[in-house]
Amino acid sequence: MPVARRFDLLWQPLRNGLHRNNKAWHDYAHRGSLSYPWLVKFGTRCEPHQNWSILKTMTNTDNSKDSHNAPASLIEERRDYTVNTLRRDELSSSPITQFTHWLQDARDKKIIDATAMMLSTSDSTGQPHSRVVLLKKFDDDGFTWYTYQESDKARQIQDNPKASILFYWCALERQVRIEGTVEKLDPRDADEYFYSRPEGSRFSAAASIQSSPVENREVLEQRVRDLHEQHPDGNVPRPAVWGGYRLRPQRLEFWQGRADRLHDRFVFQRSSTNTDWLIQRISP
Ligand SMILES: Cc1cc2nc3c(=O)[nH]c(=O)nc-3n(C[C@H](O)[C@H](O)[C@H](O)COP(=O)(O)O)c2cc1C
Q1: Are strands 116-122 and 128-134 parallel, antiparallel or unpaired?
Q2: Class in CATH terms, 88-281
Q3: What is the model's pTM?
Q4: Which residue ranges make up each domain of the chain?
């Protein structure tokens, strides 16, 4: 690659006055400069990876006819996973302890939204639906999040309490898949968490009937203003249907990315009658 082109790639985001959270910077850091770890570290919280092939792919792509600077082919979008390993002898006998270690690693790494998890539920026709929620508690009884107990997800959980949650921590090259049965918590249990939230979040929660159609944004904002008028002290009450759910796990999988896609995978499984966990390595 010509030196001038390399220089151009490096300075493009600075020249454009992009700041560290700018999407273009993020795209740039991931698409073009993964071979400059310090740059990636500066521009994004995702771990750096030495991957010249991405840079080569990007610069080999002839974008001259495309004024939008189209991304390199998705087929070439790949990286190797080399940050960690997961051996059987370092795996805890309790999946909850194992999860505790991995979540702590993610928080120590300052991974953004380390507690964000993909929650998948399915409706009565079998159609799955996925969305992100935040993990707020976990222990041997399960994994808890808070939401509207009359939202789409709530209706799906009522139709089919089997669900899965998924964590992906990019910088650690780790994925945790958790499957089990969801139970609805008493909304009164949510008081402590609800009243610990920032005032703005509490008003928004009270103003929004989650998953229901709304004519436009102004309608939502007006509802928030009305609530502020009704509760000038800021103490808007928790909506009666805002509460928690807990997924009781029956199967957990810990996935550690490895070089050449020969990943480490361990599954913890238990039957509904057995409280002991069976641990098995499975193929990548
Ligand atoms: C990072 C992130 C965190 C979120 N956390 C929550 C949450 O804790 N609870 C929640 O109800 N929705 C949360 N959401 C919004 C949900 O993804 C979703 O839009 C909402 O729960 C409505 O889903 P539903 O219509 O399928 O019920 C979050 C979204 C993102 C992207």
Answers
A1: antiparallel
A2: mainly beta
A3: 0.79
A4: 3-76, 88-281
What pLDDT digit, counting tens, does each position of 192-247 carry? 999 999 999 999 999 999 999 999 999 999 999 999 999 999 999 999 999 999 99
Two structure tokens written together for 280 = 């098995």
Name the one residue in this structure whose structure tokens are 């999988």: 253
136 lines ligand 1 (CB under 6 A): no
From CA 205, how far away is CA 223, in angstroms rounded? 11
Tokens of 248: 């009781």
pLDDT tens-digit series, residues 88-97:
999 999 999 9
Regarding beta strands 162-169 and 116-122, do their DSSP bridges make them parallel or antiparallel, or are they unpaired? antiparallel
250 Cβ inside 6 Å of ligand 1: no
Protein residue with its CA nearest to atom 6 in ligand 1: 133
**Both tokens assigned to 147:** 């939401």
Tell me whether residue 248 is one of the annotated catalytic residues.
Answer: no
Give me the residue label for tokens 């490895």: 258
Beta-bridged to residue 268, according to DSSP, are 252, 279
Ligand 1 pocket test, pick from 132, 166, 242 with the greatest ligand atom count within 8 Å of Cβ, gives: 132
